[in-house]
What we know:
alpha+beta
Amino acid sequence: MSPDSVTLAGDIPVAHLDAAGRVAVWDPALEALWSRPADQALGRTLNELIVALEPAELPALEGVRRAGVWSGIVALLPSSGGAPRPSGIRLSRLDDSGGLELRLAPLSALAADAPTTDVAPEPVRDGQRLAAMLEFMPGFCYTVSRDLVFTSSSGKGLAALDLIPGQVVGLTLRELWGPHDETYQPLVCHLKALAGIPATYKDVCQGRSLEYLLRPLRDGSGEIIGAVGVAVDVTDIENARQEQAKLAAQLRQSQKMEALGRLAGGVAHDFNNLLTCIIGNLSVLESRLGQDAEAEAAVRDANAAVDSATSLTKQLLAFSRKQIISPRPIDLTALVQRLGKLLERLAGDRARVVVQCQTDLWTVNADSGQIEQILVNLVVNARDAIEGDGQILVETRNVDLSEPGAQVPEPLHPGLFVALSVRDTGRGLSDVERSRLFEPFYTTKDVGEGTGLGLATVYGAVQQNGGAISVETQLGKGTTFRILLPRVESAPVAEEVTGTSRKSTGGIRGGTETILLVEDEPSVLELALRTLQNLGYNVLPCASPDEALRTFSEYQDRVQLLVTDLVMPRMNGKELAGRITARQPSVSVLFTSGYGENIIAKQGIIDDGIHFLGKPYRPQELARRVRSLLDARLALHP
């Protein structure tokens, strides 16, 4: 018999299942209610047509046949791929053939003729589920009459508003809100609900963010008698979203700064090779000038320009955190006081420098040269931000951020720190300026008045020394830069006084030892070769690691020192040194590079037992380091 020829009694649409549990009859009325035509239902099992919601699993058909009836809440799966539709269903035994009848029904109808069991009736179970939902839901539910008088309120979320269930019953919404005009959004939304129009809105109450969903409340006849509202506390969700957005912004900024750092470091590497060649040739010229005053002045000016260029590359390396540093325990108060006069001269006449240093300051582990550069750059930046007369406050103090909940800037962790602050009374910074503050080559000064590297250098140097820097600023009120460095238990180490001469290699003792010299930059290779040969050394120049290995194989027993660049194609200097010293352990090694690669250093700190000469270097610096290493080798291998 075809399903179209079956006339099903009553107004409630039904379907019949055969003994195998497949649809045999499909009421035409189900096509609209289920959004599934008969040809998409006949012959299919229940598992293909519905998803059990309550209970969570469909019953075994044999169990339904034995019990006679089963009811539950399911989601009807439409054939069109649309959204499933929640509904109640009832399965009952059809006849002795083993067939079953399926009826759609509202929840209230399901409970009307359910078999008597130990399970609570459906309305009771609905009430229990609603109570449980209200107990665990981060919000609350309430109803109001057509006069906007609260008739009920319940839910765990009321506690966050300092309310208890039922406390507002009898009050009007206007009494709870206070005076507002008729366009007040919460009022308008409640009036919409009373007119039969669902509405939603957001509000803040007692510091909590709430989302309200309003629907009309109807009696049994369908007449609107009030409104029902559900308020969901979304404070934690919004806070999480804000934190996520903050972290995403920090990640983007970190990636941008990292990319700029790699670019800056690469530029510094190439530029330092050029400077090494320029410096070396200027030193040669300087040694041969004689009494030509005009030529001496020209060389002197060229040397000054080279010094400026060298300073620029150092700033690039500091920003990119690739500069080789020598951290040691230092006292920041002593360092600031030692630089006091210099800072006053830098500030000039329009800014007064005030120093406030804590006397019992904790020790930090940092490169004193970099900290001095940081302080100088911050004071110069503060001076330039002041229009007219102003004040620059330089301060050091101990800071305890070990307590739970302490605001510790990234990437630091809770602990004890020393703070170095520079505060000015200048014009302050806009949000746009602040967001780009530490980018290299970004400056708020006029064209020609700054390189845009000062604060970028500060940022990189602070990071490389294991600290963090933060900025507080307000337009018209000034700016404060605050640097935090972790405390160490070691006592401060005394400052080392060093100096670099521009004089030629005259006076530096040479020798006749054999040196394997490896450098892939031809101009630098030529300069180093000429410098060492002029001192009497037997130099084996090589333009690549492969050439160096071949040369070493030929002169292995004679080579006493390897001088090699670090960054080279195919093989870096450390790998080359490893191969050579594996074959001849007595060979000493001196690395050179214009880029503080992590090949021989971690966070800019050179590994123990490694000797390094940074580019650009002067011929006399190369001569001095070579002689020192050969003398040390002679002491070990007489």
